[in-house]
Amino acid sequence: MKQQIGPKLGIFFFFILAVIWLVPFMWIFLSSFKTYAETVTLPIRFLPGSFLNFDNYKELLGTLNFGAYYKNNIINTIGILVPQLFFSSLAAYAFARIDFPFKNIIFTSLLVALMIPIQMILMPRYNLMIKFGWFNTYLAVIIPSIPSVTTTFFVRQQIMGLPKSLDESAIIDGANHFRIFWSIIMPLCKSALLATGILCLVFAWNDFLWPLIVINNQERFTLSIAVANLQGQHLTKENLIMAAALLVSTPVIIVFLFTQRYFISGIALSGIKE
């Protein structure tokens, strides 16, 4: 009897969690079709007057220039995602497969660096961007975000779970380290790369604090900054903010829905060692 109750309780628990997540999302979705008058009406209206009211989206993509902010987000995200996965994977391979002096000390130091609050390094980063002349450019957002200890750690764990006999066979055939990395290790780490890639994509797409510091040119604003600017000092149009929030979150949600099985398997396999 207990064996039958256990799975049902688990299903019920996750169902409640799904509802807790879904209700706010549904509120955002429905509010994005409302007029400003409908958002301030009492008692609160859950449903919009019409699901064919796209005025909020027209204003965002037209008057408020959200199309340009989408372009900025795409450039920043791709500029961070691709180099981060490549260089973090190279570092992960080195830490997992190559013996060099002070390897463990360096890797431990990197993990300890994760404990440093991001606020402590914002000012040094900002000063570097000014000295390099990158302020108000894509480079100011992209370059500091490329190094990732988290991505390196996850990919390293995946590589350590692969048999070393693969490397030894390739070395006998005359392959160098880069050939082993690119032709053997990387194809076997697709799940880990996809999992960390999704995490990187979400972080880069939603990043707010760092772009806010290094970008003050409206033409270079990201979506997160644009959404924050919709909140006025005296008047806030909730319907516009909800429509903007939906525009910002939808691409990431779609990517995750189509890649969630790779994400789950990548996270699960990242802790396996040979």
TrEMBL record:
InterPro entries referenced in this protein's UniProt entry, alphabetically: MetI-like (IPR000515), MetI-like_sf (IPR035906)
Membrane topology: Multi-pass membrane protein
Signal peptide bounds: none
Domain of life assignment: Bacteria
Compartment list: Cell membrane
Chain ranges passing through the membrane: 12-30, 74-96, 105-123, 135-155, 180-205, 240-259
Domain ABC transmembrane type-1: 70-259
BP GO annotations: transmembrane transport
A cellular-component GO term for this protein: plasma membrane
Keywords per UniProt: Cell membrane, Membrane, Transmembrane, Transmembrane helix, Transport
Family membership noted in the UniProt record: Belongs to the binding-protein-dependent transport system permease family.
Protein name, entry field: Carbohydrate ABC transporter permease
Species of origin: Breznakiella homolactica
Upper lineage: Bacteria, Pseudomonadati, Spirochaetota, Spirochaetia, Spirochaetales
